[in-house]
Design brief:
There is one protein chain. Strand 9, helix 8 and strand 10 form a beta-alpha-beta unit. The chain is built from 13 helices and 17 strands. The protein folds into two domains: 143 residues, Aspartate Aminotransferase, domain 1, CATH 3.90.1150.10; 222 residues, Aspartate Aminotransferase, domain 2 (3-Layer(aba) Sandwich). Helices cover 36% and strands 14% of the residues. Helix 1 packs antiparallel against helix 13 and helix 4 packs parallel to helix 5. It has a seven-stranded mixed sheet with strand order 6-12-11-10-9-7-8, sandwiched between helices. By secondary structure, it is of the alpha/beta class. Bound molecules: pyridoxal-5'-phosphate. The site of pyridoxal-5'-phosphate has 12 residues, from helix 4 and helix 5.
Length: 424
């Protein structure tokens, strides 16, 4: 389709968009009495208007029933997880039994590494992307140390080729093959937070398995953003946060996936608590742990129901819109964003788009590095009603999400960016 850099054109795309009205189901910050353009769903997703009611139900049940709230009320707390997992299957590409909602992302990364990073004297290396999100790097380093290895030796980072920003699948596979006798775990993000690049999870998993290693993914920027098929891809485990694209609130309860074949692997180590104990025995208070037959066997503690309620309300909006529909709209938004960015980036190139244009290699986030006065350019966005994100030294990230962003917002953003760049 030949796009146009025109307000009326963008508005016409919105009028044809059957998901456009979903933006009214979210609160958005305002600036000078006007709804701001919020391109930060990759950082903290907006609040669904239903979240408050869903949380209030829990508070009310607590008020009415006290501890009996675990068994009484509309959504008894005891089985509240069961309301969440069915809503996640499509988004994660997993079966219900492979999903558990618990803790927070970095905590889950550590817990899963306890299971899937069990190094031996000869097989102890972790292969990951260079410039992984800092929290992940700290997790890798401290896990390696926990097992008595030296991070400089045990952590193999795959770098982009000289002069480029993206890491090729070939280089990842080559690193795995080079270390095929010593690699214990291959752990990448699904989407790199900085470049917006999607990693080929299926191919990476295959290569890891061929080398005799586990493959896991941090899906912080992938969950709710791109199509995932963790089960079919044979991924061993994954974890993600729910406050980015999944709109479940600041510090939301996080998610984890453990492939079915690993759940039933009796040799896999796991840190355990009473909530992972089979529900039929959980309250018998015996000293023997009988694992739940699902990924919930990794859960340790009484779930925070208030957080689960906010999460549930957010997932229900996804279900109402249909994840498949959202992915289609997401790609349409991104294509228009690429078009307008390329349009304003000529005749003189003022910035470079880092994120791959190919829809298979990106989600909705687009990162671009600004050649001149980058910070000054960025600092003019928010006063003009645009929430975007800054990464040192000169990168601006914008993420138009299909649930609450529009084609018109993309046009307005590009028009403003053009003015700012011309003045800078
Ligand atoms: C956002 C993000 C985190 C944050 O971890 P928390 O434990 O939720 O604070 C970690 N890793 C990646 C890749 C992220 O994008």
């Amino acid at each position: 389709m030949q796009h146009k850099f025109l307000l009326e054109y963008a508005q016409a795309l919105d009028s044809k968009d059957t998901l456009h009205h979903f933006r009214e189901q979210f609160y958005a910050p305002e600036l000078k009495g006007k709804r701001a353009i919020y391109f930060l769903g990759n950082s903290l997703g907006l609040q669904p208007k239903t979240a408050r009611d869903e949380v209030m139900i829990i508070l009310q049940d607590w008020a009415n029933f006290g501890v009996e709230g675990f068994f009484l009320g509309n959504n008894p707390w005891l089985n509240y997880q069961n309301k969440i997992t069915p809503l996640l299957c499509d988004i994660i590409g997993a079966t219900e039994e492979e999903l558990v909602t618990m803790n927070h992302l970095t905590v889950n990364l550590h817990l899963l590494m306890i299971s899937f990073y069990q190094p031996t004297a000869t097989r102890y290396k972790i292969i990951c992307e260079a410039k992984a999100f800092p929290s992940d790097q700290y997790a890798f380093q401290s896990q390696v140390k926990l097992h008595g290895f030296d991070a400089a030796d045990a952590i193999i980072e795959v770098h982009p080729k000289e002069g480029t920003e993206l890491i090729t699948t070939e280089d990842i596979i080559a690193a795995i093959e080079e270390n095929k006798d010593s690699v214990a775990l291959v752990l990448f993000s699904g989407i790199n937070y900085y470049t917006g690049q999607v990693f080929d999870m299926q191919t990476i998993t295959k290569a890891a398995h061929k080398a005799g290693a586990y493959a896991g993914f941090d899906l912080a920027h992938a969950a709710g953003n791109i199509k995932l098929q963790l089960h079919d891809w044979q991924v061993d485990f994954a974890c993600w946060c729910n406050y980015k694209y999944l709109n479940s609130g600041p510090g939301a309860i996080a998610g984890a996936f453990i492939h079915k074949r690993n759940i039933s692997d009796k040799n896999l180590l796991r840190l355990e608590g009473w909530w992972g104990n089979d529900a039929n025995n959980r309250f018998k208070m015996q000293n023997t742990f009988t694992a739940t037959a699902t990924a919930e066997s990794w859960a340790m503690s009484t779930p925070p129901i208030i957080l689960l309620a906010a999460h549930k309300s957010a997932l229900e909006v996804f279900a109402a819109a249909g994840f498949h529909n959202l992915l289609q709209k997401s790609n349409a938004l991104s294509e228009y964003l690429f078009f307008v960015l390329n349009h304003i980036n000529q005749p003189v190139e003022k910035f470079k788009i880092i994120t791959p244009a190919n829809p298979d290699e990106r989600g909705c986030q687009v990162s671009f590095s600004v050649h001149k006065n980058a910070k000054i350019v960025f600092d003019q966005l928010l006063p003009n009603g645009i929430f975007a994100d800054w990464r040192e030294p000169n990168v601006i990230r914008v993420a138009p999400v299909p649930l609450y962003n529009s084609f018109e917002e993309i046009f307005i953003f590009a028009q403003l960016l053009q003015q700012i760049l011309n003045a800078a």
